[in-house]
Batch of 2 targets.
Target 1
Amino acid sequence: MCVLARLSCSRLGGWAPVNQLNYVIRRVLQIIPVLLVVSVLIFLMLRLIPGDPARLMLGDKAKESAVAALREKLGLTRPLPTQYVIFMKQILSGDLGTSLTYQRPVAELLKDRLPITVSLTLASTLLSLLASFPLGYFAAKHKDRAGDQAVRATALVAIAMPSFWVALLLMILFCVKLHWLPVGGWGSTLWEQARALILPAFTQSLMTTALLMRNIRNSVVDITVMDYVDFARSKGISEAAVRNRHIFRNAMISTVTLLAMRMAYMLGGSVIIETVFSLPGLGKLMVDSIFGRDYTVVQSLVFLFAFMVLVINLLTDVIYSLLDPRVSF
Amino acid sequence: MVRTGKRPRLPPWLVAPAFVVGVLIVLASFVLAIVPGKIVHYGPIDVDTTARMVAPCVAHPFGTDNYGRDIFSRVVYSARIDLQIGILGMIVPFVVGGVLGLLAGYFAGVLDSILMRIIDILMAFPFTILVIVIMTILGQGIRNVYIALWLVGWMSYARLVRGEVLVLKNCEFIQAAQVAGFSTRRIIFRHILPNVISSSVVFAASDVVLCMLTGASMSFLGLGVQPPTPEWGAILNEGRGYISYAWWITFFPGLFLAVAGVGFSLIGDGLTDFLRTKGR
């Protein structure tokens, strides 16, 4: 991290790398209290469900002895604070319990499925970035003219379309009618997996692309009239350099914040997209576990999702501070 | 709010038409929601075993499903529930979040800190996950969709309003009102509120779309509206198994959902523009 901080400093101006590193450390430490409260909420989640969780998980037909055994195993018979201590001890030791449905340790289940959701989110993010910058810049350049209106109208529609509907329509077209892509599922080879990600990632990226594009368009419109852009042009540097170093760099600042929010949203959206495309990722596991009343898995999943969002937010703040030298440490 | 630089604006000839189209779409959806019986001939849950999986035709313009239920009728009757989810899902958080944001921004201090910490923590969960978790705790069904949307939605308004109040409360006219001895209540509701509400109003238009989509996706996953009640997301879920030969079950409810969403978004865009011009 230190090397990165120093590198960034040499590139972006002359602040002391120590400050940068302090900022990162402070920001990492800030996550701890949030995670603690998150853990309390998740701990309470299982206890807030009306009825006896053990009975719910095993179903009405289960024998009373089995329910009692599970109750004991989950620690539900002890007082709440003791239960929480046990819960935290287990999490910190990496023992997330055993899934009732899959009869496997939850930690293993999550490890298997995490890469799929992460690939989906990253692929969607990448697609959105690749599409939104050119489109946003194009719209801003053609402000209020036909090109701008067309891009903005498309964005408006993209935002209003339900993702699961788009997903099903794409499936009808590309999988059922044209047979170009698999109807769903996850392959065993890298090639199959990449193919399996195309439609889900595209669907997931639509709304993000639209929102980012709007934001980039508006930022570029605002920035283009700034004095420093005129100044850069008057220095005689090339239009591409003005665009990349002066306009895009500044447009990035608000875009990074929005992108982080969208990445967090897309992680949650995986619940829907993975269900439609039968991708065996964390989102699908979440839905299956909720319906299977496998609350041990649900708990760990919620925790993992929250953790990923906190990491995204942390990275955003660091990137933000690199992009905008005015951010104080 | 003080801003510099030119802001993007649609040309006047296009602003109004887009806004008008939005209003017309939303009005049309309301007509569907209020008098669905006047528009369709079949009941939304009328089973006709002689007309299963009929492709769109004159008698069934949107076709029928595996129970022989008329999709057009089901889609029209859905409007009531979906619009309700969109609008009720927006209004309660708008009011609660708005008031909390006003108070937190104006009084700062402990209330503000507590509120912001709560928001920080809840924001650690992805939106859909938070809604699903609340649905898991409360159980399935439409009533709990509302509660989940309310518990999650207020945060955006609170943050939005709080941020604007923080800027505004240092303005001279607010200080003047304080010096003039106006009651705090009067300052907050007569002087601050009118100046901070516009961004929330604009956000509310897109929030209706978000609530509708979230409500529909909960039903799509099987957590929200339960069959046979007609709801766009629920119908989509029913049609999922038949996409290879009965595309119409899936296509039409999604189309209506998307068009209604476009309607509210156009209104939102129009409002943004209107408020911007007014603010100048």
Target 2
Amino acid sequence: MNRLRSFFLKLLSWLLPDSVCLWLLHGRKESLRAALEDALAETLLEVLLEGMSLAFLLLRGFRRNLSGFSGKYLFCTANGGVALRALFANGQMSVLAGESPDYDVAVTFTDSAALCRFLFSSDQDILASLLANDVTVDGNLNYIYKFGFMARDLIGRLSLAELVDRMLARLRTA
Amino acid sequence: MTPVSLKDLALSNQKRSPRVEELRKAYFDAMPEICCERPLLVTRYSRKQRLLDKTAISVLDKARQYRYVLEHRRPVVAHDHGMGRDLKPFPVKARSLFAGSTTSHFKGVPIFPEFLGQTLWPELVNIKQRASNPYFLADKDVQILNQKVFPYWMKQSILERCRVRMNKDRADQPIGHRDAPEMVLMEYLVFYLTSKGNCISHTIPDFSQALKIGLRGIIEEAQQRGRAAKDSEQRDFYAAMVEAMEGIVTFSRNLAREARRLAKQTNDASERAELLEMAVVNERVPEFPARTFREGLTTVWICWTSIHLENPDVGLSLGRLDQVLYKLYNDEIRTGSLTIDEAMELLCCLWLKIGDHVPTVPAAGEQLFGGTGSNQAITVGGVDTQGQDAVNDLTYLMIRATELMMLRDPNLNARYYPEVNPPEYLRRLCEVNLNTGATPALHNDRAVIKALTSKGDSLEQARDYGIIGCVEPGSNGRFYGATGTLLLNLTSVLELTLYNGEHRHTGLGKLISKPTGDAASFKVFDDFKQAFVAQASWIVDRATTLNEALGLTHQEVYPTPILSSLFEGPMDKGKDLIFGGAIINSSGATIVGFADVVDSLAAIEQVVFQEHAISLPVLLQALNLNFVGYEALLARLRNPEKTHKYGNEQPDADGVARWVATTLDGLFHAKVNYRGGRYRVGYWTMTNHAGFGRLSRATPNGRRDGESFTSGMTPVSGVTPWLTSALNSVASIPAGLLGNGLAVNLKYTPDKNHQDKMLDDFVASVEGYFDAAHGGTGGMEIQFNVTGHADFLDAVKNPQKHDQLLVRVSGYTAYFKDLNPQMQQEIIDRTEYDLATGQAVQFSRTA
């Protein structure tokens, strides 16, 4: 079923203009917008990963990031509240719940605000993250750099960059 | 000994030529542009030859790779445009006298995906708009790096390969805790950093062979030795030398061909003549011996830019150019085929070429440690291998070129041997410091030679030292010393001692090292010192273990055939530098936070153990609260009249300084590196004292949370009221403990109305510091900022008005505007002395 859905959505991405594909992502974009506006939302990571997953199917340009890429990411909160895995293989991304010892990189963060800073940060926020010591990484850092590019690329394509900047500014003054 | 024939040592008539003026203006106008040429060629070749799948890459594989890159680089004779800060290209009308460039851009950012190039990945889309030191990157180049370069190196970068090597037996560790503890400690950022993830060589090549026999001579010798070699590894190494050198020869020929092509196209006769002359030079060198000064400089330049294709631009240095090029210069001056004007224009063009690239620094790096150039040191003056005065006319020309150009790179370092080099030479060096405000750094030969011989270098090798990167001394062209391999935050040792193996940055309650005793349990200061040594030993073990693992990773996949071919030792030994091919094979650690730790230890000794004014637990409480509620204690700890401070000739505090230096020298010297050499210790901090300081909590010397540490081996700012005492304290630390160099940063108040008097006092201060009083060697190194307090404050407010303001950080020079705010503040807050009185000038702290 999933493979059929993926095939269908990818087909749409070839048949439809980008603007229509972006419109199809509207629901995810609004969820992401809502999660970003409330940077402390526990759902941010899940919304981001799900949105990214769908964007890979619908946006041809964005999908180029997956070409030849395979990787296993584990994201979890320090208190054990959230554990999500993002798996990249065969030109697809899937999101799974729960921990697994099989990962290329594991990111442990104290809260969604820390994760926001870590993923989207401008200069000062990276420093804030370091000072607060609120994100730790175990594994291959190059996977984090790649993920950082994809996350920012997605935010740009969804025209959410300004919102992210505002959110980061708010976190700085919080 | 080479007689100086110049009548005016200042070369006052020499000005920047119109060509140099135009190029210099473009240099300052240009925004650095990320260059994809090298990473794309390296990746393409590596994929084609399946190098990325290999667990080990041979020196021959590497050499063939670089030959491919050198032969396929676009030959750029001259850049016709630079990238403006408004993100629009602007024309560059003048042409340098040297063809070729480090990257494909007028001012480029080289990318090494094998090292830390991928740290820029998340920023690629908006790197041209980032707040600190943005780089231009065209949209198409974003996609090249994102799709055609970085993905292939995700599992191949040095740091990642090392991580996998160290984690081999850690698969059973809990989720999130598989990385080796040595690596995790580095990622906390407050304990130590190792540069091997970003750097393969921090040294000085040997240009003398390339100049004397040309690369063809090196090729022929390598071929001969290869035929005679009995084992296959040696045969491969010599074959690799041939491949690497042939690549450089082709690169230069390609430039010559391009110059001829351009000459054919132009209708301007003088332009045509210039291009044809360039073609003739590049057809000749570096393949064959240099016959003229210009050919000599071109040899150095072409070899230099080729070395940078193999070695990331992290403090690789050029050495004693006034010595290796002097004969070529002097022969031509004597025969009249070269004028001083022409020589000066050539030098100025070379100075600009050397600075044609900036290092790759990600945003977080800019925030913590930003503002650095590539730190390419040039050394002038001093003595020759026989101990004779080596200052010559070319020395003065290079000093004048530096004065005229006022550039961050190259980083000029001047050697001075008291009573051997002439006093007028020292006076000239001080004068240039007054005129430029920040350069050159001055090195006392007597102390440096003692430092190097103490570590086993022969007297001749030590006398032939050059400066590497910031301030590190190493024998020219034969010392593969990796001088910047470890940066140790010494305040973390103090922290682990105070908190019984825990660190406030990583959280109290979490054991980081090993317990060495509760603070309340220390009865006497010696107990405390013992715990400090145990913690220092623990952290030195961890840092060197990581460094060794990185070194072994280099051996596995990153031999350096280009540099090995231009170095003394590998040809004779038949092995690459990375396997110990050099004559001298040490590693270098540098210590951050020296003076803060010394003053903290001195304070603990006096206030807690001698006077019993407070207990150690109370002091810890004050530190945890950042002295809030303990203002009286803070005032006492900061007051040099009440609490002992290093830098005031106070015997207890200066004794602690010597004890700390002796302890660290002993701990590091006991370690043998992967190339068979030993570790040497230095005290220069670049901008790391600001970065580490920002991440660190309050310290017992009265430093509050997040404040910068003090740079290099300089006494803490604001606690040393007298210049002479400050210099004498520093000079009292034996040179034999300082094998990896040191930086002492001083700030003098400029006095434009009494320049001559100020110059007299300036010279006297250096002479006093270098004076071998009391049987010692005198102080080893000193560097200056001579810019007024008000000018610094104005430069913070109006950076564009002061965009060429050059400052000494701790080792290298930087443009003040490029430094992060904390580093700017650290420079502003440094103790400033009025040379007329020798007393510190009082300013209200602006932080």
